[in-house]
Amino acid sequence: MRIGLTFNVRSAREPGRPDDFVERLAGSGPFRARDDIDEEFDSPETIEAIAEAIASLGHEVELLGYGEALLRRLLDGPRPDLVWNFAEGHGSARSREARVPAVLEMLDVPYTGSDPLTLAVTLDKDCAKRLVGAAGVATPRWAVYEGDWPPVRALVASLPRPVFVKPCYEGSSKGILGSSLIEDLATLEHSLAELHEAYQQPILVEEFIDGDELTVGVIGNRSPEVLGIMRVLPRDKSQAPFVYSLDMKRDWQRRVRYECPAKLKPADTEAVRAAALACWRALGCRDITRIDFRLRDGVPYFLETNPLPGLSPLSGDLVILSRQVGIEYRDLIARILQATCERLSLTPDAPVVA
Predict the structure, then answer these.
(1) In this structure, what DSSP letter does residue 348 have?
(2) Among 37, 78, 139, 186, which has the highest number of CB atoms less than 10 A from its own CB?
């Protein structure tokens, strides 16, 4: 098959390299100085790794990119047999991840992953929580701040302390720091105003679930498979409560460790598996996704879903999870491709199994 890759690229940053991100924020307000604008975007190394894995399976690969260049390439043709979509989209609009799939559907070009509706509702954390809550999955209590404090003050005040704050329409832990965990209303009001100004979007104020940080990989379609449940643990056990923040992720090799399969009670493992599959169905996910939970007292609380999970061969959570259950990078790419081809009833001219 001729497979095209859509993507947003950022400047190369050595995965896992600690930087002065937190230090540069100190003294200027926790969210005022941003360097995470392109955090969702992929490094050239990740794009190359995906292309090489697909090519190693016997397919012809073309880098399509994003935006006007992508549109011109698709309109001028010839069009690829399939598009491997992992373009996040520019800006802060809640439907930015849906743009490329919408264009591909309009042009009748098949693609990997979830459709425009799922990509839009999962990026909007408020919307995603409403849908999984309606499906019976537990989610932390929350409120949405839209730039005006009085309308949400009473609701926020009713939430248990501490609360957790994060942008509504972001991924890759953008806007999530250790300082996102807040105890008092005065600090909360100030932080919400700064976060709203910095990210130009609504801000989620959420009950903090003090429990195990878990991420679940799910692959497939009609009968989706849980690839594994991974627990994220701090190396410094004195850090309590633990927040899997952006600064943690940027320095993951020194500051966190990953346990997969997660050492949970059998009943807890089954509860997390069932919750992940319920979220998958409620949100309409396809082919591949990664779903985050906090587990407290045997109850998995849904945090968010990432249907465009990071695929960095070194630092992607889904890649780390897969590797720990015996699925190497090339095989993971092959499995995603196979799930897509089965869903679309495509018969490729090369095998899609590793």
Answers:
(1) -
(2) 139
